[in-house]
């Protein structure tokens, strides 16, 4: 906690000590209105009402109220008898106004609102956020396993000069990969803020699924359901791509390798409209191609074509010699 915050709280306590009643009395309802008898002072209760969420049994209450009983604005501090948490709220005429936990510090471990930031080896949990033994955990507000609801971490920029009115710019969202319990998986989605219908009926914001990591380690860019280790729905540009292949077709040049004759190739092409081992246009459209495998197949066809060219050249040379012999007779 910074020094200014500590000083402010101390001044509030000093003010109440000097100006309020000298004894602590019982008030069960922290939301009691001034026109119903609420006054400034120190209070306690065993039956807390309108205290911080989950409050039960013994609680303290420090109440600072307006001098006019009809004015139901109040500044309140509260805390359980049994822990070191301190809670704060300004009622703003709302008896059920939510409470916020105050920044506190203990041995270098800082707690801010409902978010715990603590040192290594700690084990603290609060509401939907927790930090346990150095691991920061963000929990969703909903229970059960659904594929469309989960926990999110949002990055925002203020839209006002003084730093208020945050506008979310990007999110990391985690949802269930499936609804099973026996083989449950998760999915992480990284998305930036988008606008659509900008020039139509109104501006509507949503977060895109720019990058998805599913439960088996597949990554999708521009696709919500990647089927490969990396699925990209769009163009990819790179300086260099390294593709590994353990079946490079040098075996085509080994002794005993049999290739189809040109007449056999002609017959196959007439029937299938593509080369042997090469996928058809329809299959490529449906399934794409594996870059390493396709390069290997194309090289194989080039090597087979080279063998055909060598064979044809031998025949041409032989025919040339035969023609020369005929011409010299």
TrEMBL record:
Record keywords, A-Z: Signal
Keyword Signal: yes
Signal sequence annotation: 1-20
Protein name: Endosialidase-like protein
Organism per entry: Pedobacter cryoconitis
Organism placement in taxonomy: Bacteria, Pseudomonadati, Bacteroidota, Sphingobacteriia, Sphingobacteriales
């Amino acid at each position: 906690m910074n020094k200014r915050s500590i000083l402010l709280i101390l001044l509030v306590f000093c003010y109440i000590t000097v100006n309020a009643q000298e004894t602590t009395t019982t008030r069960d309802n922290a939301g009691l209105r001034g026109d119903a008898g609420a006054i400034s002072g120190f209070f306690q209760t065993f039956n807390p009402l309108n205290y911080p969420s989950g409050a039960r049994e013994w609680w303290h209450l420090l109440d600072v109220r307006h001098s006019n009983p009809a004015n139901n604005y109040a500044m309140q501090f509260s805390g359980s008898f049994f822990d070191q948490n301190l809670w704060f709220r300004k009622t703003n005429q709302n008896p059920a106004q939510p409470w916020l936990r105050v920044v506190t510090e203990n041995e270098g471990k800082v707690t801010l609102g409902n978010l715990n930031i603590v040192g290594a080896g700690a084990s603290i949990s609060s509401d939907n956020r927790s930090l346990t033994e150095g691991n920061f955990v963000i929990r969703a507000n909903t229970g059960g396993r659904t594929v469309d609801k989960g926990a999110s971490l949002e990055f925002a920029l203020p839209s006002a000069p003084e730093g208020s009115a945050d506008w979310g710019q990007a999110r990391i969202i985690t949802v269930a990969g499936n609804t099973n319990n026996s083989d449950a998986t998760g999915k992480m989605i990284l998305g930036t803020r988008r606008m659509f219908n900008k020039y139509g009926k109104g501006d509507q914001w949503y977060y895109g699924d720019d990058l998805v990591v599913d439960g088996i380690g597949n990554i999708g860019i521009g696709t919500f359901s990647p089927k490969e280790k990396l699925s990209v729905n769009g163009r990819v540009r790179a300086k260099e791509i390294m593709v590994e292949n353990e079946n490079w077709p040098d075996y085509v040049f080994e002794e005993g390798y049999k290739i189809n004759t040109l007449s056999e190739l002609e017959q196959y092409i007439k029937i299938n409209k593509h080369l042997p081992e090469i996928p058809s246009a329809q299959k490529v459209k449906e399934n794409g191609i594996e870059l390493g495998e396709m390069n290997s197949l194309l090289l194989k066809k080039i090597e087979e074509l080279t063998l055909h060219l060598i064979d044809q050249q031998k025949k041409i040379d032989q025919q040339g010699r035969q023609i020369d012999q005929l011409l010299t007779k």
